[in-house]
Design goal:
- The protein is mostly helical.
- The chain has helices spanning about 10-20, 20-45, 45-65, 75-105, 130-134.
- It has five helices and no strands.
């Protein structure tokens, strides 16, 4: 499979992607998905998140294929690099969210109890009937 994305095949695949051929995108997804999932899962250790990252990678490939310099080795090195970078970005965000939640909990900002949302009383608001008719 990797050979399919190296040498001559990627050049024509790249040209088809540049021409906005959706069949080429489907072909790229079929060829590259196992490799990209392997890389992202080894980094993230989460199947669903890895699939999201791979989906983003194909979106990036579709949107930015014209900005990518043709690589004699093919599209695969570029796709793998994008997938790796996106997975690392996800790890960083995950760490930031975790640290922020820990800090908020330590400061007592996050309580253990949840409060119910209050219902808006539109009738108590002047002009509510006008908004109701609109």
């Amino acid at each position: 499979m990797l050979a399919a994305l190296s040498a001559a095949a990627p050049a024509s695949l790249r040209e088809r992607l540049l021409a906005r051929d959706e069949g080429a995108l489907a072909e790229l997804v079929g060829l590259a998905s196992p490799w990209l999932l392997g890389v992202t899962q080894s980094i993230l250790r989460d199947r669903e998140e890895s699939e999201e990252v791979v989906f983003e990678v194909f979106g990036t490939a579709w949107d930015r294929i014209g900005e990518v310099e043709p690589d004699p080795r093919g599209l695969m090195p570029w796709l793998l690099r994008v997938a790796r970078n996106r997975a690392i970005d996800r790890l960083r965000r995950r760490g930031r969210r975790h640290r922020t939640a820990e800090q908020a909990h330590a400061l007592g900002v996050l309580g253990d109890t949840m409060t119910a949302a209050t219902e808006v009383n539109e009738a108590a608001t002047p002009g509510w009937h006008v908004h109701e008719r609109v």
